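Exercise 3.2. Students should predict the tertiary structure of the chain below and write it as structure tokens, then compare their answer with the key that follows.

Predict this chain's 3D structure.
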Amino acid sequence: MAQPLLLDSTWRDQQKFESAEAVYQCKMAGTSGGGSALSSGGDGQFSNRMNTLETENKELKKIVDDMKKMVSKLESRVTALEKGGNSSATGSKPAPAPADDDDEDDFDLFGDDDEEAQAEAEKIKQERIKAYAEKKSKKPVLIAKSSIVLDVKPWDDETDMKELEKCVRTVVMDGLVWGNSKLVPVGYGIKKLQIMCVVEDDKVGTDDLEEAITHFEDYVQSVDVSSFNKI
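Answer key:
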């Protein structure tokens, strides 16, 4: 029973065996019909991969060369700076750094843009400061003023009070405006001159007024502040 079953299995797989025999014969003859297409497809993929690797290799080599140039330029600049520092320390004149336009292009790609931005920002700042100063200058400044009433006392009842008042009003100061006046009895026939004035606090003080009025010593005995009010 086993032999018929074996023969039956061999007969059903006859095509597989024949294909294997054909491949074997082709290999022995040095040719491969079925593998030719496969080999051709594999060679194409391999060639494409090799071309891609060669392109990537060239790009990497270019990048490495550029980096070497940059490192070389950096080393040159560092060396020049070190020589300059040593020359300054010894008192000798430092050698000028070699001009290199490519170096500027490599390391200062955005320098011009930064300078323009800073200049524009500074211009805007100055314009705002100018506008604020103009606005502030147009705003009315509040001047502090005071209303003062002075009591000017004569020496005796024989003092000419009209002449005394005339002398008082001759006192002129920036920020001083004289007002109304009147004579007020003190006693024993003596009258004092009570006179009002308006002063700018930053320019005129009570001490200034007293000193100026008592200067007329032929008429004035003393000066007192009767009232002082802020306006």
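Discussion points: The mean pLDDT is 78. The longest strand covers residues 176-187.
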